[in-house]
Specification:
By secondary structure, the protein is mainly alpha-helical. The chain is built from eight helices and two strands. The chain has a two-stranded antiparallel sheet. A hairpin with a 2-residue loop joins strand 1 and strand 2. The protein is elongated, with a radius of gyration of 24 Å. It starts with 5 loop residues before the first helix and ends in an 8-residue tail after the last helix.
Length: 177
């Protein structure tokens, strides 16, 4: 019930109370009050549903990648650029997908990064295991690792890793969910 707003909670309680009323008049008034609360909720309250979106990036994942980037890059500036590019990659993942919807050229435009710097950053991200690039035709598809794209209950993480292996590494040759 906590996911509901205050007015939605009130409307739910009023609906439940209307079902328990022995008097038809009181039940009708409770339903009217419930309708009024429902109208207030849609007009006055906007809730942010964190888990209703596409992806949730774990802080532990970002911390681990950041640490690896600073260890493997030649300069702190390279590591910082790679971190910002990883953020943009994660921002542009397809719906319920590990794949970034943008190409390296489009990422260069978005981040105002020159092509050689983008290539270096993507190579660095690939070297530390944050992303994987797969050649498809004339372009390379950028996918994030399961830790970067994991959604949902941590108890299902092994299943997500297995799905990633089947979908991305083996090219979707495995069984679908």
């Amino acid at each position: 019930m906590r996911k509901r707003g205050t007015y939605d909670q009130a409307a739910l309680l009023l609906d439940q109370q209307a079902l328990q009323e022995s008097s038809p008049e009181r039940a009708a008034k409770a339903r009217e009050a419930a309708m009024a609360a429902k109208e207030l909720s849609s007009a006055a309250q906007i809730e942010f549903d964190f888990f209703g979106g596409n992806v949730s990036i774990a802080f532990q994942y970002m911390d681990a990648v950041t640490e690896r980037l600073f260890e493997h890059s030649k300069t702190p500036a390279q590591a910082k650029e790679a971190i910002s590019i990883l953020w943009v990659i994660c921002r542009h993942l397809g719906w319920q997908s590990y794949e970034c919807t943008k190409t390296a050229a489009e990422l260069s435009e978005i981040t105002h990064t020159q092509a050689p710097h983008m290539a270096t950053a993507l190579k660095l991200l690939e070297d530390v295991g944050a992303i994987q690039r797969t050649k498809r035709g004339r372009t390379k598809t950028i996918t994030v690792t399961p830790e970067g794209a994991f959604r949902g209950n941590v108890n299902n993480h092994a299943k997500a890793v297995e799905r990633y292996k089947l979908d991305v590494i083996e090219g979707g040759k495995g069984a679908k969910d």
